[in-house]
Design a protein that fits this description.
It contains nine helices and five strands; from the N terminus they run αβαβααβααβααβα. It is α/β, with parallel strands linked by helices and about 220 residues long. The protein has a single domain, classed as P-loop containing nucleotide triphosphate hydrolases (Rossmann fold). The longest helix is centred in the middle third of the chain and has 25 residues.
């Protein structure tokens, strides 16, 4: 690599404008650390970027986030309720922020998106993929990511990175999170051309992982590499 690991190469500075990228992966994958590094790099490069997170990102979405991630003492949230709340937050986010930002030519970077629903509520939770597809079509109204970066790391490494103050999703246990990882790997396998779901090896140091991000984005968006 000819550039410092936390600087965007010139080829990507042009290629990423107006794109919609998602950072996703199991809890403990290091996704959040890399998201901070990436956003700094694109802003340093002078790229107009809109940062969003799921669930949340809007006033309505943040209220939904509180309900989804808090530990509930009085009753257990049903799985379909959980899935539909994520979709409701996503619908508001797409209409209020993502679609308008893309029309302006901004780079949009989302901390999680519909790929999380496939992995958590689908593969790990058991909701049929067809049901998730139908709900996503209503929520997203054609707003699709140009690429989803999936940060892949073994379960032991991921567990060692989790915050001891776990939210409701993080606290579901090892067996659940093994299924989540399998869900993400299934998404990668479903995309043999590596244009929709991009696997990022997330086991190394932060700088090494950032270099892996630049490599997969260059392979995806820069012609004649």
């Amino acid at each position: 690599m000819t550039t410092p690991p936390q600087e965007l190469p010139d080829s990507l500075k042009t290629a990423l404008r107006g794109k919609f990228l998602v950072f996703d992966g199991p809890d403990g994958s290091g996704k959040s650390t890399q998201l901070v590094m990436f956003l700094k790099a694109v802003r340093d490069a002078g790229i107009e970027v809109t940062e969003v997170r799921e669930p949340g990102g809007t006033e309505v979405g943040e209220k939904i986030r509180d309900a989804l991630l808090d530990h509930l003492d009085r009753e257990t949230m049903s799985l379909r309720c959980e899935m539909l709340l994520y979709m409701a937050s996503r619908a508001q986010l797409c209409e209020q922020l993502i679609a308008p930002s893309l029309k302006k030519g901004h780079l949009v970077v989302a901390d999680r998106f519909v790929s999380s629903t496939y992995a958590y509520q689908g593969t790990a939770g058991g909701i049929p993929i067809a049901e998730i597809d139908a709900a996503a079509k209503i929520a997203m109204q054609g707003t699709e990511p140009d690429a989803t970066l999936i940060f892949d790391v073994d379960q032991d490494t991921a567990a060692s990175r989790l915050n001891p103050l776990l939210d409701r999703m993080e606290a579901k246990g090892a067996a659940f999170h093994a299924k989540v990882r399998q869900g993400y790997q299934d998404l990668i396998k479903s995309d043999p051309t590596s244009t929709r779901y991009l696997r990022v090896d997330a086991k190394g140091t932060p700088d090494q992982v950032f270099g892996n991000i630049l490599d997969v984005l260059t392979d995806r968006f820069v012609e004649n590499r």
